[in-house]
Amino acid sequence: MTDMWLNQPEVRELSRHMADTSDLLIGTGYEYWACLYHYFPGKTRFIPLCMDIPDAPPRIEETAGPVRFFIGIQRERNEEKGTDILWPVLQQLKADYPDRVTVNKAENVPYDEYCRLMDNSDVLIDQLYTCYAMNALKAMSKGIAVATVAIPEAYELLGEKELFPMIDLPCDKKGIYRALEQLVLHPERLAQLKRDSFAFVRKHHHYLKVAEEYVARTCPSPPVKGRVES
Hints:
230 residues; Rossmann fold; two-stranded parallel ribbon; 48% helix
């Protein structure tokens, strides 16, 4: 995607044309919204990504054994997602705490298999350069804690003032290691992080709530009964 923007001017021109001729632009993540808002503040809106969230929260128990980390790797997007940095950090963490850490990796597997592997984990290691998206939402909907980019501005955009369940990852290896090490040293934190993660996606990303936001933000107000619209 980055190469497309850098090396194909026609792609940039087409995107600009679509933005110029649209009535409304919707950003579904913090970075998307921020970029659109910078150029088109008058017609940019934020509506979060949606997910099919179960009605009942998953059963969450205290972590008794090793902390189970899970990471998904797409070889063709390894550097783009930052997994080329995250994976070695996880390996080092496992080497330093062999009895307190397990690491499971899914690399270029079918989606159903990916979800099955994710189920047997405590913490999903998501991505490094952009805020959380569908991968993180899927994990949180299962009651799994997530380590990703979770800057304060992303929470502010949602209007969230109480639930901050995601472990925010810096871009340097030492910072990432320290953030993940705290989960290993304090596994008692995980149960609450998991509960808050499910509550967070239920509150902000349930597909019905998101659909209501699209209706509210994109559809004109209904005419007043008995009034003829000109």
